[in-house]
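Now for one protein, fold included:
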Amino acid sequence: MPTEIKDILPIMQAIAEGQACEDIWWRTDGEYAPVTFLVNCNDFFAWGCSDCEELTVEHLHVFVKACADDRTWGPQLYCARVRGERPQGACYRGMPKRVAEMFNACGPEREINLINPRPPTDGEA
């Protein structure tokens, strides 16, 4: 659902304050007009997959909280919280344990399969 003109500035302020500029895409054409903001989560939920989650004014508080919880992983944490889903297991490698615990709280343990071929680690400090 496209973002209303009045909601563009609050979303852009949250993106800047969360230092998440490199994780955000936007579209302004066709069904995406006047603007639709998208959070990049390529390869995060599925192995070898392009993916994104829409950033809406309704979920802006989730985005702000996720970026406050962790500056590095905030955008992906937003996606996981909105979807109610943990990332694929391979994403946990090198992740701080406290961040891994936040992702684990997003949803149930995932089955190992083609899109999630590796089990998660507990995160590494």
Observations:
- Residues 24 and 39 are 5 Å apart (CA to CA).
- The two ends are 39 Å apart (CA to CA).
